[in-house]
TrEMBL record:
A divalent metal cation binds at residues 16-17, 107. It comes from Fulvivirga sedimenti. This is Ribonuclease HII. Belongs to the RNase HII family. It is found in: Cytoplasm. It holds the Pfam family RNase_HII. GO terms for biological process: DNA replication, removal of RNA primer; mismatch repair. The gene is rnhB.
Amino acid sequence: MLQTHFSVDLLEAGCDEAGRGCLAGPVVAAAVILPRDYHHPFMNDSKQLTEKKRDILRLEIEREAIYGVAMVHNEEIDDINILNASYRAMHLAIEKLSKCPELLLIDGNRYKPHNDIPFECVIKGDSKFLSIAAASILAKTYRDEWMKSKALEFPVYDWENNKGYPTEKHRNAIRENGLTPYHRKSFRQLPEQLSLFESTCA
């Protein structure tokens, strides 16, 4: 069972991101402050949930929690690298909270301090703390929604299913059609690293 709080005395926000390993689209982060005595029987790491359950829980989180969600898009990812982009997305999400947290619970083992807010890094935190699990659900659902909207613009890349991750169908579409304006040009798009960067979609 996931823990509700790391500290009983501090206002905590769980933080997580989605989309770090994708070939296209933004990295999305969320920060979530849950009510003090919040419990939910199905809340878990977003990767352990079906899409339908994530969508239901997103509505629950938006109704019950204080939250912020932020995106850093592929152009900035290319400029500052994916790790710094992930930190930036988290910082932006935290700044959107209507209350300033006294402690951040960060999923993973690294974080760049911001605004002098104390933090704890928690490896696999989305399977240990409710607030991090909630953040993972928001980050995942917001990003999936964004990628589905862009799939209408570029249907051959199958983003409605792969969400920009490096599936075989996605990479085959890159081989055949080149890169879109939403692809991360600093990423290794294909194993053979073809010179695709000049062959971008208009």
